[in-house]
Structure formats: structure tokens, C-alpha cells
């Protein structure tokens, strides 16, 4: 304290000074509340400005605001950190992205996916409108059963469960399905509860959570459409096609199995029955014994295999029924050749449509009309004469363009009339005989000859072509 001045020091640094007045010391300088408080106030002002611009710009997102702030277009906005905005949630709420769920199952039947497809507008020959599928998560093996009604799911599930558990010696632990009434009925839930099967359901209107079964159904239907189209069969054969498609999928490599087939993962042994696979719908001739003079075979179509029977399932078009036989001769080459022939026909059509008609370089000669008018001229180059000639100018609305293609003998023949002016104009423009130029509506005098125009527009067109009055 010196001369009535109080000094507060920290080491060699004078922190503050105070002058004595009436037994009180008054601070010399300004009061600093604190850096934290100043920063907090600045942050609050910046947040308010950001919120203001956010609402001004129709509740724009942070990324858009940051781009405008970097360009210095938003006055007073510095930080673009938006706080919670209820209006943005109400107006922009979307569904949460679905991640790839992986079930780390350790063995077969630990986790089973199931789904019901239908109803189909087209009933099968057996009267089915639905099918239910069961997919083993570990091996991705699939079982498909067709149904007439959805309430048959429980009966089919019990039959499939007993068969599959007896053959594999394992129990179903978890069953995943959607919220369909066939899966959430009291009898179905009671069966699962009595058997100790854990149930997993999807959220309402969220089929992505049952993605394995849904994707398998899509794969099945893709194969069905391809096979029916290839065989030329109607939609009434969808049940036979989907049963055979499931048989094929179990013998195709699956990405979830790292390239192994579902049958190989299920049984632990490679599948070796590919030699019995045939083209769906291919012609087949099965052995019959009728009278001594009748043919020994009838023609049918291959539909797949019958469960538990060493024979082929065939469709006989003449008798309109399915038959099972082991004495069958197949003609797969007929379908292969048919597809090859169809491909050649399509290629021929494509080649023929791509051929251009060779045109003779002749002038475009319009037909004379009674009224004489002034119109643009067309210049051309003649191969035989070096001199340039000018086509006569006639009325535009009576022009008739002639096409001169070559006939089979190589001679030039002249059609009576050629109506496709676009097909004619394209090769002529490429040759450079005609210059294609866009003309504005106001500068086109041909309007009065091609469409009704007003009197004012009519006089304007006359002025363009240099006609003062009409007699």
C-alpha cells in the first residue's frame, strides 16, 4: 500500500489496484465477470441466430446451414449446431435403417424362419391359393407346402415338425414369423409353448425383420416365373413349379453357406443327385399298356418328383391329370432347340430392322399446284452431272416426296407414294443433301399453309415471303 493506493500482487504481477476514498477502496479498471460467462453468453446468441436461420430457411438441415455460413451468406450465424427441433421430427421422421442381422446358430433347427405367401389370383390344378415355407437358418434348407386356406398352417407345421425332428434327431428351438393370425392363434401359441419353442415376431408392417423367409419367397417366385415362361405353361401350374423350385434351391450354392449347398450343410455330405434333374415342362413319354395295337407311350410334361416315390411326376395334357411313372423317356433337346430357334428369329428381326434403305440421290420434286407461291429451294449433288440444279419451287402443302429403294434384283424401283417422311429424311440429312435447321414460329411463313392462323398472323406470313396483297 503506497500513497493511498492498494495493490494486489501475485508474485511480480500486479493483479489489481484500489484507491482509498472515505475508508473504502475503489477498484481501478473494469470488472471482468469471467471468460466462461462471456463465452456462454456468446454461445447462446449464436445458437439463437442459428435457430433463426434454420426456421427462415424452412427448417434446413445442419449440413445446408454450414455450407451457407462458410460462404458468409447468413448474417450473424457462426456455429451451425442445431438443437432439438420438434417440428423437424414431426415433418421429417423416417424409418430406422435396417442392418444386416446375423444369427450365430450352432446347428440345424436352432433357428427356423417361416412365412405364408398368398393368396394367388390363379388357383393351381389342386385348388391351392397359398404356400407356407420353412427355412432352416443354419443350412438355409427350405421346405414348401401348398395350401388351399391359411388356417392349414398349424396342421402343416405339426406334420413338418414331427417329420423333421424324427429324421434329424434334433428339436426346433426358435421359430420366427410375422404377426399373421395363422401364427398368433391360440392353438399355434399353445403348441409352441408345450413343445418349448421360443417365438420371435416381427414389428407390425415391418417385413424386413423376417428377411430370410421373405427373400427366400422372392427367390422361389423368380424361379417359378422363369420356368413357366420357358415351358410355355399357364399360371395354373405355379404350385408344381414352386415345389420343384424348392427342390432346386436346396441343391444350389448359397452365399450364407460360403458357397456350399443347403443339402450339403444339412447332411454333412455333398449332394450327388444332379443327374436326375430335368428341365421343368420338357416333353416326356411315359410307358402305357392298353390294347395290343395302341401306342406303348403317351406324351406328357415333366413336373418334378413325387415325395417318397421313385418316379417322375408328369402332366398329361390329353387326359388333364397328373401321373407318376418310372418308365419315362425325356426330350430335353426339344426345348433347347426351341429356345435356340426363338433366339435366332429375334436376332433376324433385329438385323432386318436395323438395315437402312439405300436411297438414290434424286431431287425432292414437289407436285405443282394451281397457286404459285415462293418457297425455300433444295440443292442437291448429282453423281452424273457436275452442274448444280435448283429444284422448282412450288406450294409447300402439296409436296409429295418419292422414295426409290432397291428391289431384290438390284434395280431401282419407284414406289407410288412414300408416307414415312422421317425414315426418308434421316439418311438424306446424313448424306448432306438437305440442311435441317430450326425456324422460330414467328419466322416461319409455312404456318399459313399448314394450319389455321389468325388474320394478323396471315398478313405477317405474307410480309415474310414478300407478298403485299392477294388478288
Automatic annotation (TrEMBL):
SUPFAM superfamilies: Ribonuclease H-like. Pfam families: gag_pre-integrs, rve, SH3_retrovirus. Residues 362-399 are annotated as: Disordered. Transmembrane segments: none annotated. Gene3D superfamilies: Ribonuclease H-like superfamily/Ribonuclease H. Residues 379-391 have a biased composition (Acidic residues). GO terms for biological process: DNA integration. One of its GO terms (molecular function) is nucleic acid binding. This is Transposable element protein. It comes from the Eukaryota. Residues 102-270 form the Integrase catalytic domain.
